C-alpha cells in the first residue's frame, strides 16, 4: 500500500477511533473483548481501504465493519454455547475415573433404549439424527448425502429431537 493510503487511514483512526471503540464496547459490554474486536475492525478496515467507496462516509463504514465483527463474535459464541448444550457429553474429562461396571451397564441400557426410541421415529427424522449423533457427520455432510437443503436437515433434526425428547424423558421416570 502506498503512503497516502496509510496516512489517510491513520487520520481516520485518529478522528474516529475513540468513538469506534466506545461503540464496540456498548455492543459487547466487556472491555477486553471490545479491545480485541477493535483491533480486528482496524485490520479489516485497513485491508479493505483500497476498495472503500469515497462517496460513503468513513465513520459509517467503520461502524458497519464493527457491527459485522460483533455479529461474527456473537455467532461464534452461540455456536460454542450450542456445543456445550448438545455435544459436551460426547467427551470425557481426562481427570475422571473409569465408570464402575454397574454405571457402564446402566449407560449401555439407557443408550440402547434411546436407540430403540430413535428407531421408532419416522425415517425423515430418524436418519439425520442417527447420522449426526452416531456417525458424527456434520449437518452439511448430511445435507449433501441426502441431496436436501441444509435448512431442511436442520428442521428435521429439530423436529426429530422434539419428538424424541418426551419418549426419552418417559424412560427416565
Automatic annotation (TrEMBL):
Question: RNA polymerase sigma factor 70 region 4 type domain location, by residue?
Answer: 112-164
CDD domains (alphabetical): Sigma70_r4 (cd06171)
**Protein name in UniProt:** RNA polymerase sigma-70 factor (ECF subfamily)
Q: Which family does it belong to?
A: Belongs to the sigma-70 factor family. ECF subfamily.
Q: Which Pfam families match?
A: Sigma70_r2, Sigma70_r4_2
Instruction: Say which domain of life the source belongs to.
Output: Bacteria
Q: Any idea where the RNA polymerase sigma-70 region domain is?
A: 15-78
Q: Which InterPro entries match?
A: RNA_pol_sigma-70-like, RNA_pol_sigma-70_dom, RNA_pol_sigma70_r2, RNA_pol_sigma70_r4_t2, RNA_pol_sigma_r2, RNA_pol_sigma_r3/r4-like, WH-like_DNA-bd_sf
Name the PANTHER family for this protein: RNA POLYMERASE ECF-TYPE SIGMA FACTO, RNA POLYMERASE SIGMA FACTOR SIGV
Amino acid at each position: 500500500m502506498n503512503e497516502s493510503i496509510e496516512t489517510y487511514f491513520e487520520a481516520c483512526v485518529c478522528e474516529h477511533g475513540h468513538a469506534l471503540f466506545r461503540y464496540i464496547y456498548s455492543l459487547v459490554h466487556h472491555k477486553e473483548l471490545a479491545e480485541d474486536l477493535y483491533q480486528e475492525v482496524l485490520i479489516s478496515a485497513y485491508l479493505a481501504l483500497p476498495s472503500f467507496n469515497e462517496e460513503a462516509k468513513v465513520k459509517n463504514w467503520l461502524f458497519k465493519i464493527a457491527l459485522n465483527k460483533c455479529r461474527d463474535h456473537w455467532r461464534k459464541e452461540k455456536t460454542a454455547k450450542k456445543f456445550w448444550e448438545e455435544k459436551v457429553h460426547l467427551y470425557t474429562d481426562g481427570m475422571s475415573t473409569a465408570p464402575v461396571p454397574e454405571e457402564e451397564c446402566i449407560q449401555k441400557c439407557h443408550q440402547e433404549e434411546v436407540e430403540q426410541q430413535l428407531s421408532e421415529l419416522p425415517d425423515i427424522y430418524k436418519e439425520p439424527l442417527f447420522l449426526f449423533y452416531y456417525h458424527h457427520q456434520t449437518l452439511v455432510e448430511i445435507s449433501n448425502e441426502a441431496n436436501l437443503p441444509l435448512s431442511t436437515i436442520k428442521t428435521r433434526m429439530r423436529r426429530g429431537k422434539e419428538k424424541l425428547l418426551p419418549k426419552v424423558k418417559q424412560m427416565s421416570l
